[in-house]
Design brief:
Number of strands: 14
Largest sheet: 8 strands, mixed
Order of helices and strands: EEEEEEEEEHEHHEHEHHHEHEH
Radius of gyration: 21 Å
Shape: globular
Helix content: 25-40%
Distance between the termini: 37 Å
C-alpha cells in the first residue's frame, strides 16, 4: 500500500511514511489516522499531518519479543496462474534459517473469505520461518485489494475456486524448487478452515492440516451467520433455492470419505458462530475412517482466539502434530 494525497484537479502526491501495510484510514481537516505496519514493524496507530506531510506514531515499548532484521523473513511477491488461468497473487516467506535438506511448506488460507493476506509483521508466520519452514500466504481469487474483477472471480465459486488457487500456488512453488512435495501442510481458521478442508477433499498435495473453528457445513452457516453478513452466501455460493446441490456438495462434512490427510482441530467452547458439535462430528467421522485426528478445545475462547497463551499453545501443538506426521 501507499498513501497519496489527491487534489481536486487529479494531481497525486505521495506521502512518504515507513509503512507499506495500511488499514482503517480516516481523514479530515488536513489530518489522517490509520493503522500501519511493515515487515519489521508490528501494527501501530499512525497520525499524519497532510499539510506538512509528516507523521507521528506511538511504537510499543518493552515488547515481549525482539527479532533482528536479519532473522525476519520478508514476504516475496509470487504471481501464478490460478483458476481459469487467471493471474493470482500470494506472499512467499522463505525459511530463516534453512534447517532441512527438504523444503517443508505451510500454506496459510486467510479467512473472510473476501479479505486479504497482507505483508505486515506477523509473529505466527515468523514462528514457522524461524523453524525452517517456508510459508505461503495466498491472496486467492476473491481477495480484496486487487480490484472488482479479481473479487468477482469468487462469485458462486466459494469452495472450488479458492481451493484450486491454493493447489496451483503450491504447484508453482514446487516447480520453482522452493517446496518439497512430500512436506506440504495447510492451515486455516473459520472460512479459511473451510477452504483447507476443501483442499484436502479435492487434492492429494497436502500431507497434514490444521483447522481452527472451521466452517464444515454450509447449511448450518446459512442459519447462524451474522446479520452484517446477510446475503454473503448468496454471493459466495448462490441462493439456496437454486443452488441446494452446491451447498451440499461443497460442505466438508459431506466429503469426509475423500479425506485421508491427518488433521488437528482447535475450537473455542464459547464459539457462537461455528457450532462445536459440527466440528466434533467432522473429527469423529475422520477418526472412524482411521484418519489421524487431534481435537483440542479452549474453555474461554470464542470464534477467533484472543488470548496470547491460547494462540501460543495452538502453534506449539500444531508444530508437534506436523512434525510427527511428516516425520521431520
Amino acid at each position: 500500500w501507499s498513501l497519496n494525497l489527491i487534489s481536486e484537479y487529479g494531481d497525486s502526491v505521495n506521502i512518504d511514511i515507513p509503512f507499506d501495510e495500511m488499514s482503517y484510514l480516516d481523514a479530515n481537516n488536513g489530518r489522517a489516522v490509520l493503522i500501519g505496519s511493515n515487515p519489521f514493524q508490528e501494527s501501530t496507530i499512525v497520525e499524519i499531518d497532510l499539510k506538512k506531510k509528516s507523521y507521528n506514531c506511538q511504537r510499543r515499548k518493552n515488547s515481549a519479543y525482539s527479532l533482528s532484521k536479519e532473522l525476519i523473513s520478508v514476504g516475496e511477491d509470487l504471481w501464478f496462474k490460478g483458476y481459469n488461468q487467471c493471474k493470482t497473487h500470494a506472499w512467499y516467506y522463505p525459511p530463516l534459517p534453512i534447517l532441512y535438506d527438504k523444503s517443508p511448506l505451510i500454506v496459510k488460507v486467510h479467512s473472510g473469505p473476501t479479505s486479504m493476506a497482507s505483508r505486515g509483521f506477523n509473529l505466527p508466520i515468523q514462528f514457522w520461518t524461524s523453524r525452517g519452514w517456508g510459508v505461503l500466504d495466498i491472496n486467492y481469487s476473491g481477495s480484496t485489494g486487487f480490484g472488482r474483477e479479481y473479487r468477482d472471480r469468487l462469485r458462486n465459486g466459494w469452495g472450488n475456486v479458492e481451493a484450486f488457487d491454493c493447489c496451483a500456488a503450491v504447484q508453482e512453488l514446487i516447480k520453482l524448487g522452493k517446496a518439497s512435495r512430500e512436506y506440504i501442510a495447510i492451515e486455516g481458521s473459520s472460512a479459511g478452515g473451510f477452504t483447507a478442508l476443501r483442499c484436502l477433499s479435492s487434492s492429494d498435495l497436502f500431507r497434514v492440516a490444521s483447522c481452527k473453528y472451521p466452517v464444515t457445513d454450509l447449511f448450518a452457516m446459512l442459519k447462524t451467520t451474522h446479520r452484517f453478513e446477510a446475503g454473503y452466501l448468496d454471493y459466495l455460493v448462490g441462493n439456496i433455492r437454486d443452488n441446494y446441490s452446491n451447498y451440499f456438495e461443497r460442505s466438508p462434512i459431506n466429503n469426509i470419505d475423500k479425506i485421508s490427510t491427518p488433521v488437528i482441530f482447535f475450537h473455542g467452547l464459547k464459539d457462537n458462530v461455528v457450532c462445536l458439535e459440527q466440528v466434533r462430528k467432522m473429527a469423529d467421522k475422520l477418526n472412524d475412517n482411521k484418519v489421524p485426528v487431534e481435537f483440542h478445545t479452549f474453555k474461554n475462547e470464542g470464534h477467533g482466539f484472543r488470548d496470547a497463551i491460547s494462540n501460543i499453545k495452538v502453534l506449539e501443538l500444531t508444530e508437534k502434530f506436523f512434525l510427527k506426521h511428516l516425520r521431520l
